[in-house]
Specification:
The protein is an alpha/beta fold. Helix content is 44%, strand content 15%. The protein has helices at 13-24, 36-48, 63-72, 95-116, 141-148, 154-170, 182-201, 229-240; strands at residues 4-7, 28-33, 54-57, 79-84, 120-129, 207-211, 250-252, 255-256. β4 (79-84), α4 (95-116) and β5 form a beta-alpha-beta unit. The mean pLDDT is 92.
Amino acid sequence: MPRTVLITGANRGLGLETARQLALRGDHVILTSRDDASGRAAVDELARDGIPVDYRTLDVTNADDIRRIAAEFSADPRLAVLINNAAVSLHGFNSDVVRRTLATNFYGAMNLTEALLPVIADGGIIVNVSSGMGELSAYSRKLAARFSDPSIDREKLQALLDEFAAAVAAGRQGYEGWPSSAYRVSKAALNAYTRILAGELKPRGIRVNSVCPGWVRTRMGGASASRDVAKGAASIVWAATLDAPTSGGFYRDGRALTW
């Protein structure tokens, strides 16, 4: 039986190429997009290449969309692989940018994952598409230690994000040791969530890893990026096809990165 794989933000760029590569391996891929027209256009593009995939509209910031998707997996076949790829990188830096960035890049991934956990098969895989910008070197020692604390849980992590939002609103993020980038913070939070989930899901054999695809020539990465989309997606595919108990790590090209 082919594995069922759900990929968020897969109407273009890394998500679309990941869908292509996994479908070519024989997986049953469900491509999702918050924009219905572009999502269906992506499915048609793959179909012209003889690559069949299914499609669902999914905005990870929309609670009704998340509930609908989770309900579809209430019966077999269960979901084998979840790839949290949907992300935004917005211009500017203010409270609104922080709110919108975290809503998609962190809370969207977390809320979808939590909704799908009951229907992800034991032994399944969760891949969180992160970034090297999520590394903790851009933070004060105190904040980096809190993000990397082995005892961090959802409550502590969300408290950190609330502190970041409050610091930005007050114009004090630099004084408090935060980077002036909502994208950086969203990816550091996603990495921390990876570690939380990996520990919780170990009894079920579900592997959870973060992946940095590198600097890729996509709409987000820009034309000057050093990698083509196939190379970037290969890192995601590697994590989505792991045949080892590796979990709770951060990888690029199959090699471990520091948090």
